[in-house]
Amino acid sequence: MRSAEVSRNTSETSVELVLDLDRVGQVTVQTGCGFLDHMLTSMAVHGSASLQVRASGDIQVDYHHLVEDVGILLGDALGKCLGEKQGLARFGSAIVPMDESLCLVALDLSGRPYLSVEGLPSLLRVGDFDVDLIPEFLRAFSNRSAVTLHVRFLNFGNAHHAIEAMFKGIGLALSQASRYDDRVTGVKSVKGRLS
Description:
Blueprint lengths: L2 E7 L3 E8 L6 E4 L3 H13 L3 E8 L6 H19 L8 E8 L2 E8 L5 E5 L6 E2 L2 E2 L2 H13 L2 E8 L3 H19 L18
Parallel strand pairs: 3-4, 7-10
Antiparallel strand pairs: 1-2, 2-4, 5-6, 6-10, 8-9
């Protein structure tokens, strides 16, 4: 089973996270930020993974520390689940429509963290959630999981729809990239190693 349980406690947040790439449907997310809960749930459901997150933090300030630390822990957990990445498809991508919004996600389980996000307007809010926190979450996730991640908002309409399309796309792309390919021996790389 490719599963991992990780935790992080600081003076700003407390986060416990369990990720299982091979078990579908057990998703419970409680962070104190309803929008983040909804997005992580969408990612796990569409990625056919199980995810449990319990987090608390200094949300009376804002959601920044909470969102970043959840991204850190999700990246740590994914890295542990993937291990040496033997026999994995490695690449994944998805184009997800959600009503008027359209988002492209492409990723590589390369062992080289890189993030590119285009078409995400700044200074927007969804309820009490600051949309500028999305790159913070993605950067923390990409850096800790050592994943190359590209996100393109091809049509950014309603902010809720656009960001939800992105999270669903990440789930779909991760599911694709982390699948075993029985034609692959070792890691899928002409160098014979990743990173």
